[in-house]
């Protein structure tokens, strides 16, 4: 199906372009969301008549998104979760959790604006991309930790999942002789 784009859509085209898309994508997403019109003579005339209004509205949205991006860009947000000694979370941090953290800080971000391919399942510093507008994209840091104190240590670059952090032992100083005695089983008995 040929459609006229009413806004820039990543990997598809710019505002005003006529592009060919699959029928289901047009019927289920582009047309109901008001992102495109069917490409026919009536809609082409309608688009040209409303072009200035659409461009002004798009520019206004982009400006608002850029303002939020300037405030949010490069910020680190703390997410406290229960985790095992190896750093594996009991559960995960998904897009809805990120939305909650951002809304607690006063930012109104939609779930569809968070680009998180798979949920976060380990403690540590994680980068998350936010698509605030089709032309405005930023990256924020999530500091996932078991407590605020651990988050501070992580932010300084300390690893909380190494043997040193877990057992209080320097990983580089560990030797096999520290764990078993090679002289103990000389007779070949497995007992």
Automatic annotation (TrEMBL):
A single MF term (Gene Ontology): structural constituent of ribosome
Please report the stretch or stretches of sequence annotated as the Ribosomal protein L9 domain.
Answer: 13-40
* One term under GO cellular component: ribonucleoprotein complex
Arranged from A to Z, the UniProt key words for this protein are: Ribonucleoprotein, Ribosomal protein, RNA-binding, rRNA-binding
Key word rRNA-binding present in the record? yes
Describe the task this protein carries out.
Binds to the 23S rRNA.
Which family does the UniProt entry place this protein in?
Belongs to the bacterial ribosomal protein bL9 family.
**UniProt protein name:** Large ribosomal subunit protein bL9
Species the sequence originates in: Endobacterium cereale
């Amino acid at each position: 199906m040929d459609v006229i784009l009413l806004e820039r859509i990543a990997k598809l085209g710019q505002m005003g372009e006529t592009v060919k898309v699959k029928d289901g994508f047009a019927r289920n997403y582009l047309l109901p969301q008001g992102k495109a019109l069917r490409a026919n003579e009536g809609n082409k005339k309608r688009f040209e008549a409303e072009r200035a209004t659409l461009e002004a509205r798009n520019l206004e949205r982009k400006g608002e998104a850029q303002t939020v991006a300037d405030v949010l860009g490069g910020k680190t947000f703390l997410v406290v979760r229960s985790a095992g000694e190896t750093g594996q979370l009991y559960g995960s941090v998904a897009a809805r959790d990120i939305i909650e953290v951002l809304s607690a800080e006063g930012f109104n971000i939609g779930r569809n604006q968070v680009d998180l391919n798979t949920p976060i399942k380990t403690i540590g510093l994680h980068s998350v991309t936010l698509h605030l507008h089709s032309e405005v994209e930023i990256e924020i840091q999530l500091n996932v930790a078991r407590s605020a104190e651990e988050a501070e240590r992580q932010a300084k670059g300390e690893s909380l999942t190494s043997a040193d952090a877990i057992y209080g032992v320097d990983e580089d100083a560990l030797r096999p002789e520290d764990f078993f005695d090679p002289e103990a089983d000389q007779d070949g008995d497995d007992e």
